[in-house]
Amino acid sequence: AKEDGRNTHRFFETDMGTAVNERRELITDLRHAIANDELEIYFQPQYSLESHTVSGFEALVRWDHPKRGMVPPMEFIPLAEDTGLIVPLGEWVLNEACRLAAGWPDHLRVAVNLSPRQLRGHGFGPVLIGALAKSGLRADRLELEVTESVLLIESEEILDALHQAKTLGVKVSMDDFGTGYSSLSYLRRFPFDKIKIDQSFVRSMAYSDESVSIVKAVIDLAKNLKMTTTAEGVETELLLEMLKDIGCTDAQGYFLGHPMPVSQMQDLIYACGDK
Ligand code: C2E
Ligand code: CA
Ligand code: CA
Ligand code: CA
Hints:
- By secondary structure, the protein is of the alpha/beta class.
- It is 51% helix and 20% strand.
- It has an eight-stranded mixed β-barrel with strand order 1-2-4-5-6-7-8-9, surrounded by four helices.
- A hairpin with a 5-residue loop joins strand 1 and strand 2 (54-65).
- The longest helix is centred in the N-terminal third of the chain and has 34 residues, at 2-35.
């Protein structure tokens, strides 16, 4: 039995070792990927429910790993956050998203996701100003999406960075609204332009009247605070109709369009035309 125990122990160690090595390898690969153009941005359309037209696109990063294929963000964003690689990665996404969006009809916006770590220190202001200057993108065509975890860190630096963005004319959205601990108090701490209602609430509207009431309450609250609302994860026409009925301003989801590579956007961008 003693022997068994030791074998089990050894086996476990080896297993852990493999996981650690694998993680280390992925970190090395990610560092390389940022420097060598292996990252790519997919764009998912967002629709205005009032005009029934595309209002903009959310930039969603993808990693085309030479051996592993497409690695989803959920597998490398947390790693990038832990190691600090999110700072150069995020800067790359911001620059690239602004550069590409500058070529779209000028009523279309681009939304970029930010991790808390990108906003700490005093590096973000210059990065943001640089991205706008290099691309020539009008500031009000850029939206920064932050989750409430960004405000969870009681930090003057972070609030300053977000206020600086607003002063430049950049829009700021609260992402994944409703999933955290105390979303409501964050609405008081920072003047967001937009609330993105989390997919979990949107999806459950199909079978739960309570969820419909909650989403409607969020939309009414946002209206009173002069914020717009984007429903995420809209996968059916029924959901789209329900959201329109309760006054949601914008929607995003597979029913309206999947995230797509730039090479597949041409027709949609063309159809948006100049307004
Ligand atoms: P998110 O910001 O909440 O982005 C929405 C996610 O939902 C995207 O997943 C999108 O593909 C997916 N989605 C959109 N419509 C639907 C739908 O109708 N049904 C379902 N089931 N899913 C839908 P994705 O691209 O895998 O990104 C996952 C998360 O990774 C994002 O969640 C965001 O938190 C993070 N992320 C992506 N790109 C970046 C980035 O450039 N920087 C940072 N910091 N985080 C990023
Ligand atoms: Ca987002
Ligand atoms: Ca979201
Ligand atoms: Ca999310």
